[in-house]
Amino acid sequence: MTNPEIPDSFASIDGTMIPQSFVDALNMFKAVNSLPEKEALKELQLILNKERESMGEDTPLVIDVVDNGGQWTHREWRMLKYLKVDTQIIPNDTPVSQLRALDGLILSGGAARIGLSGVLGNCAEFLELDIPILGICAGHQFMARFYGGGARESPIPEFGAMDIELHDGGGKIFAGTSQKQTVWESHNDEVHIVPDGFFVTASSPSCSIQGMENIAGDRFGLQFHPEVNDSEFGKEMFENFVEVCIVSCVPAVTTFIIPIVLEVFFTIFKRVLLNCSRHI
Questions:
Q1: Which of 177, 118, 111 has the alpha carbon at shortest distance from 145?
Q2: Dist CA 240 CA 3 (whole Å)
Q3: Catalytic center residues
Q4: CA distance 71 to 112
Q5: pTM score above 0.90
């Protein structure tokens, strides 16, 4: 699996991704206390570790599966459980106000034509959430239409094993998988027009849009079923989606790092004042 790029607001110290604000605090801490970098970093990390413990850093990701009536929804849930994700299957008419604090969401498949209906429970409201979302089969078709693309009855429905080929590496969901691979199909409908801001990640001879991804990298659609054992790299695709959800949590780190940085600056200024008082 590929390593996520380090955002501009972050820096790397000894291979560890750290908010730039923390690095700035470290540099000031070094200057005021005349400490070597390693000693200064060690002292600041003590503060960070205490904050991490209080925040419960080991809490697993929360990614729920929206049940659109698909026959393999429970397999999607089981795959996430296998990857140690905190997951539940929820009805597609669940009010947004009743959703948990989610790190990601999967829109499951469903019966024929359901992805073409224009209404799929509260999936339209779910797609307004600022979290990564993966649509599978009918969820993929609904996502395409929601964002202005097109879905239709398949001229050639696909059932069973099918060979697909990736486009330009396949984007984030297909990272680390083969250029040509076997997947499990079960669909009468298909996406035939990708929405603006999306690009095709995979295709087959009878379905030109087997996968899609948006440019922002937080919306993904798959026509086939990666949760079924017959999909050659299904586990890897779920792992890749989980990784996307992990990376999307990075801004949250900045949220809880701010009090830490303030504490560090407060400590620095206290020491500066103390040093100044000694010379009065």
A1: 118
A2: 10
A3: 137, 225, 227
A4: 12
A5: no
Query: What is the SS3 string spanning the chain?
Result: CCCCCCCCCEEEECCEEEEHHHHHHHHHHHHHHCCCHHHHHHHHHHHHHHHHHHHCCCCCCEEEEEEEECCCHHHHHHHHHHCCCECCEEECCCCHHHCCCCCEEEEEEECCCHHHCCCCCCHHHHCCCCCCEEEECHHHHHHHHHCCCEEEEEEEEEEEEEEEEECHHHCCCCCCCCCEEEEEEEEEEEEEECCCCEEEEEEECCEEEEEEEECCCCEEEECCCCCCCCCCCHHHHHHHHHHHHHHHCHHHHHHHHHHHHHHHHHHHHHHHHHHHHCCC
Token digits of residue 235:
């586990």
Residue type, 53: E
Q: Which residues contact 125 (CB under 8 A, 6 or more apart)?
A: 96
Contact 201, 213 (CB under 8 A): yes
Question: How many Å apart are CA 257 and CA 244, to the nearest integer?
Answer: 21
pLDDT digits (tens, 9 = 90+) for 48-71: 555 545 555 567 889 999 999 888
Beta bridge partners of 211: 202, 222
User: Tell me: the pLDDT tens digits for 190-233?
Assistant: 999 999 999 999 999 999 999 999 999 999 999 999 999 899 99
